């Protein structure tokens, strides 16, 4: 069973270890010094930034991270997506990782995504859709999105997290079920 709790500063050592895992570092390409983790994840953990970071717990064991945000709260990010896909008012986005190596490649990603989508619909009644860009080369990530019910709605160049990657991204979307 997947449950969620907000990321706290006491979780930063765990997160740092996940970000150092080669399978995570390949796609997240994040600085892993303690200072960088505090700088980049601290504001959300303290509620000073509008994004929300959640630890995914599988049978009470932390196994991954999902970040979620309203695209309206990050206009530069939203504006980068607009040439590729229509971004309607109320659109949200997620990013995710499976940090525990023994849980990677087992279908957990799609379960985490589906679970968080359900939580977004509950926690954010104004959310109209969820839009998720993913670098085209990250097949495991976009397959997890598809298995969780998102559909590919566009593709185009976006700045990749890892400069080694081609800018081509696929953009996925799921609409609120009761949106009509």
Automatic annotation (TrEMBL):
The keyword Protein transport is annotated on this UniProt entry: no
GO biological process, one term: response to antibiotic
Domain annotation N-acetyltransferase: ranges: 2-177
Presence of the UniProt keyword Mitochondrion in the record: no
InterPro entries: Acyl_CoA_acyltransferase (IPR016181), GNAT_dom (IPR000182)
Gene Ontology molecular function: any one: aminoglycoside 6'-N-acetyltransferase activity
Signal peptide range in chain numbering: none
Listed EC numbers: 2.3.1.82
Gene3D superfamilies: 3.40.630.30
Protein's name according to its UniProt entry: Aminoglycoside N6'-acetyltransferase
């Amino acid at each position: 069973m997947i449950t969620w709790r907000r990321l706290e500063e006491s979780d930063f050592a765990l997160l740092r270890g996940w970000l150092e895992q080669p399978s995570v570092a390949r796609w997240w390409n994040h600085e892993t010094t303690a200072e960088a983790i505090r700088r980049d994840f601290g504001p959300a953990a303290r509620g000073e930034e509008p994004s929300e970071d959640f630890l995914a717990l599988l049978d009470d064991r932390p196994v991954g991270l999902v970040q979620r945000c309203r695209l309206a709260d990050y206009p530069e990010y939203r504006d980068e997506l607009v040439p590729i896909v229509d971004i309607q008012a109320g659109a949200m986005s997620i990013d995710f990782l499976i940090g525990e190596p023994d849980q990677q490649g087992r279908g957990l990603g799609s379960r985490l995504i589906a679970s968080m989508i359900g939580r977004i619909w509950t926690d954010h009644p104004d959310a109209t859709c969820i839009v998720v860009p993913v670098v085209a080369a990250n097949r495991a990530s976009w397959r997890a999105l598809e298995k969780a019910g998102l559909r590919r709605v566009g593709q185009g160049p976006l700045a990749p997290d890892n400069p080694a990657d081609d800018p081509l991204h696929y953009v996925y979307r799921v609409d609120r079920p009761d949106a009509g």
